[in-house]
Amino acid sequence: MSAEYIPAARVRPEVFTSRAADHIRRGLQRGHELSTGIRSAIAGYRRYFAHLTIAEADVRTAAATSHARLEEWAPNSAEEISAVAEGAGVATLDLMEVIARTEIMTLAPAAPTECSTVSLSRTGASVSAQTWDWIADYSTLWHYNDVGAVPGQLRHAGIAEYGMLGKIGLNEAGIGVHLNILKHEGDRPGGVPIHAILERVLATAHTLPEALEIIRSATTTSSSIITVVSADEVVQVEIANAQKRELRVGSGGAAGSGAAVGPGFLVHTNHFLHPELVPGGLELKPDSTSRARFDHLERKVAEAELSSEFGTAELVKLLTTGPDEAPVCCIPDPDAPYGDRSATLVTVQIDPVRKRIDLAPGSPADGLEGNRSFEL
């Protein structure tokens, strides 16, 4: 591995905390305080896009088009991103290369597998957890995000890659989001960035229906699965470029959607499950572990013993795997070349009832020793 690589479980991320008066000042603060990390993220993704053989001109065009779509869809987000860029001393379109990285990666034939998500959907007691798997070399290119409310927006906490306004997290209204990347024929760059959609949900959704409407309203061109969590229900929204379909407990189960497995459980990895989107669904890469991880988690939740005390700690146990099991806990291969080595960078637990999110560097198998809790 590269000399700069730090094993994910050993990373102790910085915390960005903002209690600014408005979104512009918040953006300037983010850019100023996180400028070193932002510059590292821009350089890191440029290296990765080059590794994927995406031409620099195509990266720039994709970033510019996504920025234009974002300005139309969420002007406040676009303004805040420009303020971040100003505070960091970088160009807005340079920063958009990070924020729109999912859309830009549609120009490449393959990308690292990322993320396994498990949730329990039940009235008044829904919980969720996920592993965020990504490029092992980028284990230091994210931070904790404690974003205070500004007029018209909500406080939220979670993780973000440097330069992004938000990513995976929970807001003070008890609405949380998880993310898994997907791939579908027809994917292309230039849509509203998936990561901007996550931030809009966290910043503005007071209810589950509001969160779902935000996701539906965005003009998307890439594919992902956003799992939206509230105290009373969990809904998975599969996005296949412009198409969006919802999966929830009772919407067909294992025989129909493939998402609901066991009483109240929803599982997702990195392949499409909704029967209307499965046609055209693609593997992220030839050696994807998505189906093996899904099958493993399907078996684990089927064996789970439910009780009134079942919470995020129990979900984390389901996500914990060893060397001889499907790699839900993703350990990087030390001999793999750059770009082909993935790792679980963060373990996330969301409890909407308690309005609590727990974030730990590394995988559940690493022991969650660096866990950081936020209560909203």
Q: What do you see in this structure?
A:
The protein is α+β, with helices and mostly antiparallel strands and 376 residues long. It is built from eleven helices and 16 strands. It has helices at 23-33, 35-51, 56-73, 75-88, 92-99, 101-104, 194-204, 208-217, 253-256, 290-303, 312-319, and strands at residues 15-18, 116-120, 127-135, 142-147, 156-161, 168-171, 176-181, 183-184, 223-229, 234-240, 243-248, 265-268, 281-282, 342-351, 356-361, 372-375. The strands form three sheets. An eight-stranded mixed β-sheet has the order 1-4-5-6-7-9-10-11. The chain has a six-stranded antiparallel β-sheet with strand order 12-2-3-14-15-16, covered by helices on one side. The longest helix is centred in the N-terminal third of the chain and has 18 residues, at 56-73. It is globular and about 50 Å long. Mean pLDDT is 94; it is low at 252-258.
Summed up:
With 376 residues, the chain is of the alpha+beta class.
Write the layout of secondary structure elements.
Elements: E1 15-18, H1 23-33, H2 35-51, H3 56-73, H4 75-88, H5 92-99, H6 101-104, E2 116-120, E3 127-135, E4 142-147, E5 156-161, E6 168-171, E7 176-181, E8 183-184, H7 194-204, H8 208-217, E9 223-229, E10 234-240, E11 243-248, H9 253-256, E12 265-268, E13 281-282, H10 290-303, H11 312-319, E14 342-351, E15 356-361, E16 372-375
Parallel strand pairs: 1-4
Antiparallel strand pairs: 2-3, 2-12, 3-14, 4-5, 5-6, 6-7, 7-9, 8-13, 9-10, 10-11, 14-15, 15-16
Helix pairs in contact: 1-4, 2-5, 3-4, 3-5, 4-5, 7-8
